[in-house]
Write a structure and sequence with these properties.
about 30% helix; alpha/beta; 5 helices; Maf protein; 7-stranded mixed β-sheet
Length: about 190
């Protein structure tokens, strides 16, 4: 089955290809299917944004689609950046967004955080299915590591031995992350179909 990833984020697309290809799926990005657009994320939750993205791509292709909306929630920052993780404070680069988080937490003892993802799978018949995953952890005191993308250099997962996600092999994230947890739920669902 062909599966379209409703994203332009190269890091996410690579993760999804790594996850789904071994199960026999032909994974393509929306751009590879000729859909070159950015869906405006106007939802108030990860779930609403994931559905918006998937439905937009499904309406153009009528193929199975997976989209996700994910982000970092930092407890001491009232769960910011949350759904605004990719455009936190209007900052342009991932490094600027990471630095903004570190600066906001300067002197803060409570560094609890979690990554959240919501996957939306629209099957070939147009039915919508949602799967949520969460990955608990803390925010490091400084960025470290070059694996991964986004907030990985400042996120220390609960099961990472005190290292940032970006300091560990990509395979660690692909096995333990919020996205991996949501994908596992999706794969379990697909096996029942």
């Amino acid at each position: 089955m062909e599966l379209i990833i409703a994203s332009g984020n190269k890091g996410k697309i690579k993760e999804f290809k790594d996850i789904f290809t071994p199960f026999g799926y032909t994974v393509v990005s929306q751009k590879e299917k000729g859909v070159d657009l950015d869906v405006e994320e106007t939802g108030a939750t990860f779930e609403e944004n994931a559905v918006l993205k998937a439905k937009t791509i499904y309406e153009k292709t009528h193929c199975a689609v997976v989209s996700d909306d994910s982000g970092l929630e930092v407890a001491a920052l009232n769960n910011e950046p949350g759904i605004y993780s990719a455009r936190y404070k209007g900052l342009e680069t991932e490094q600027e967004r990471r630095q903004a988080i570190l600066a906001a937490l300067a002197g803060q003892q409570d560094r609890r955080a979690r990554f959240v993802t919501c996957l939306c799978f629209i099957d070939p018949q147009g039915q919508t299915h949602l799967f949520r995953g969460e990955w608990q952890g803390t925010i490091a005191f400084e960025a470290e590591g070059s694996n991964g993308f986004g907030y990985d250099p400042i996120f220390i997962a609960e099961n990472s031995g005190g290292k940032t996600t970006a300091s560990l092999p990509i395979s660690f994230k692909e096995t333990h992350s919020h996205r991996a947890k949501a994908v596992a739920k999706l794969m379990k669902f697909l096996k029942t179909q």
